[in-house]
Structures are given as C-alpha cells and as structure tokens.
Amino acid sequence: MKILIIGSGGREHAIAKALSKSPHLPTLFVAPGNAGTAQIAQNVPIKDADCAALLTFAKDESIDLTIVGPEGPLVLGLVDLFEAEGLKIVGPNKVAAQLEGSKDWAKSKMKAYGIPTARYETFTHYDTCIAYISKRNTYPIVVKADGLAAGKGVTVAQTFKEAEEALRDCFLDDKFSGAGLQVVIEDFLKGQEASMFAFTDGKTILPMMPAQDHKAVFDGDRGPNTGGMGAYAPAPLVTKKIQEAVLERVFKPLIAGFRSEGILYKGIVYAGLMIDEGELSIVEFNARFGDPETQIVLPLLKTDLVDIFFALSEERLDTVSLDWHDHSAVCVVMASGGYPGSYSKGAHISGTYAAEALEGVQVVLAGVQEKEGDLLTSGGRVLAVVGQSESLKDAIDKAYTGVSKIFFDGAYNRTDIGAKGLV
Asked: How far apart are CA 285 and CA 268, in angstroms?
C-alpha cells in the first residue's frame, strides 16, 4: 500500500507519524516533506502547489491514496484533478474548498444554513469600508481578507486607526497578493477560542477530540498572533454539551446544506469555535487539519487512521467509529527568535533524539532541514514537542521536559501552554 502526503510542515509530519503506526504498514511518500518526514517516509521534491507534477507522480508510482495537508492545493483544485483520473484522495474539491478559500463564501453558507456566527458585511472598495466602520464606530471590530493570506489576513482592530491600517493593507497596498481585494468585516465575538476537527465523506460526519490552540506569541496570550505556539487536548472548555451542540448546530447543518446544493464535501472540516458562557459561535472554518492541533489530536486517536482515510475516500464512513485514548496531549512549539517577524535560518538543532527518548514524549519537526546529517532551522515555527499522559498536568510536564532537552540558537517557546485547561 502506497500513501502520498502533500505538504511540508509539522502537520504533515504528525500525519505521517500516525500513518506509520498502522498495521497496514503503508509505504509513505511526502511532497515536498521536511527533515522529520524523511525519517519515516520518502520525501519527493515536488512543491505542494505543483498540481500537474503531483498528479504525474501519483500515477507513475501507482499511489493508492493521497492526503492533502495544506489549504493551497485544495483551493487550486488538486482533488478535482486526482478524482478525474480515478485516484483516491482525501480533501474537498475546488468548490467545497471555498469554505476556507473565501471568507465571504463561508459566511454566506453559515447564514444560509443557520450556523451561529458573527454578524458581517462584505466589501470590494476601500472607501465603502471606511464609511461602514465610521458609521458603526464600535470596537473591537474584525477585518478579514477574503482569500488565503497564510494566516496573516485577520485583524482584530481595537481602534479606527487599526481598522484603517488593515483595510489599507488589503486594498491599497495589496499586502496579501490579491487575497484582500475583497474584505469581510465582522462583529467581534467575546469568549475563548477552541478547535474541533471532523472527518466527513459528504454524508457521515465524525467529530474528533476538541483542542485549544495558543495563537499569541507571548505568555498570557499577549503579542501578535502566530500560526500557533502550542495546543492541548482534550480542552475542558468544550464540554460534552458543547460538543453535542457543535455536531447538531454546526457540522450536521453544514454537510446537509452542502448536499442540498449538490456540493460534495469529502475530507477534514475544521471548526474554529468561540465559546462565551456556554454559548457557541463559529469564528471560521478550515478545509484541512490545523497546525499545531493535529500534533495532539492524532496521538490520542486509537482507530487506525489508514482505515479512516480509505473509508472516507470511498464514502463509507458510516462503517467507522472513532475510539480515543483516555489521555491528555500537549504540544509546545519551539520557534526561531523574532518569529512571527523576521528571523534567521540555519541554526544547528540538538537534543531531539534525547527528547524523544523520554517516556510519553515525541518531537514533530516543521521548519527543519537536514544537511549532511545535521538538523538546521529553516522556518519560524521550527518544531513541536508533544507530551502525552493520563492527566493534563503530567502531559504538560512531559512536554516541557522534552523542550528542556532541545537547543538551537535563538530558540523561543511559550511557558504556559495548557495552563488554561488546569483552571
């Protein structure tokens, strides 16, 4: 059995780790991969946006199943290309991937399907945006570039000046390469954020373990947002009652609404939740696994991931049930100094093997390249140390013990990952 994973980050290394433990013993390929995936799979030097080359590789190698990690190839229509050739692939097609590829499209579907979310308006001109926020004169207010902006297209503006700067980035300075030429402006939602993934074959939807990400770069959720500085699961914030509400008020209406419009959504649905005194709203949807939540959710999954993915691709997910370890998992991201701003690359990394030798600890590599046997930093978020134990406190302790074993010049990490779950 041959499986191709598309992507190069920590999420893809985490997926590869989970698949490598399957009793099916699949042969794994990752395109383009990183130094972590190279340890358990064959890296393929094809960029994740090169859809034609990926298709040719999958056909030439007789790949049995392909899993798409990042959102970019989904929005480009990679799934459509593969399915047109009769190849099994996990991920939504180009139309369905607009759930992440267009904030306006996603918000319009939430409104049509009765999914709870913030009030919003969509704009295509700078001047009309300025007139709208001036008239509203309510802060904070949220400004979102409509398209994919590598996680940097959302601003929670505390003042008119901050909102104006965000709109200038989108419309006048084209900071997001066309992704901000249409803008969604939303009311600010109060509460705490959490995440829930689900597998779906377009008919059946199976929610996964709830998790909580830590997006801000500094302790206490201070400083600019990042791609994620760590996460933990399960998140006690997402009670059983809220999990039921997510299934009944979010996931089921979403899939039923798509089916009513002839949209087949197969793959992973990521729901970004806002929870305020037990009340639920959706901040956003993503069309793939999140990062770093994947690094903690998949280690808690007992059910074989290979079986899940094949059932999903063959539209027989109703034959699968998800079983989970009764544990907690915590991941702490170690980043390059200066991230999410400018940072240097090429620092030597040591201690990853010592960390992984610890009981209940694993290391997931992201912005790491291998050169002549050495591991070197190559990105902002370099790696994640994952601790797993029966209690959240022990899982936190294991993760930070692992962090203490790893060194590279300029290494930075938050020291409070998971603390919210102990309150």
From this structure: 10
251-256 mean pLDDT: 98
> What are the structural domains, with CATH classification, of the chain?
2-94 (3.40.50.20), 125-181 (3.30.1490.20), 192-319 (3.30.470.20), 328-422 (3.90.600.10)
Would you say 45 and 71 are in contact if contact means Cβ atoms under 8 Å apart?
no
What is the rounded CA–CA span in Å between residue 2 and residue 373?
A: 27
Contact 255, 202 (CB under 8 A): yes
Rounded to 5°, the CA angle 237-339-38 comes to: 85
Q: Distance (Å, rounded) from C-alpha 98 to C-alpha 77? A: 10
pLDDT (mean) for 22-26:
97
pLDDT for 316 beyond 90:
yes
User: Which residue, 293, 271, 267, 294, is CA-closest to 16?
Assistant: 294
Closest by CA to 109, choosing from 228, 234, 331, 261, is 261
Whether pTM > 0.90 for this model: the answer is yes
Residue range 188-208, pLDDT digits in tens: 999 999 999 999 999 999 999
Mean of pLDDT values over 118-142 = 95
With 0-12 CB in 10 A as exposed, 13-18 as middle and 19+ as buried, what is 220? exposed
Rounded to an integer, what distance in angstroms lies between the CA atom of residue 19 and that of residue 13? 10
**Which pair of structure tokens corresponds to residue 188?**
């600010």
The tally of CA atoms less than 13 A away on the side-chain side of residue 222 is 5
d(CA 178, CA 146): 9
Predicted local confidence at residue 152, as pLDDT: 77
pLDDT digits (tens, 9 = 90+) for 45-103: 999 999 999 999 999 999 999 999 999 999 999 999 999 999 999 999 999 999 999 99
Give me the amino acid identity at 47: K
Residue with tokens 């959720």: 221
Other beta carbons within 10 Å of 188: 14
Q: 3-class DSSP state for residue 388? A: strand
Q: Which two tokens stand for residue 126?
A: 């700078």
Place 278 in a pLDDT band, splitting at 50, 70 and 90.
confident
Q: How far apart are CA 308 and CA 245, in angstroms?
A: 24
Residue type, 374: D
Sorted by sequence, the CB contacts under 8 Å of residue 118 that are 6+ apart come out as 142, 186, 187, 188, 189, 281, 283
How far apart are the C-alpha atoms of 51 and 247, rounded to whole Å? 33
* Chain mean pLDDT for the chain: 96
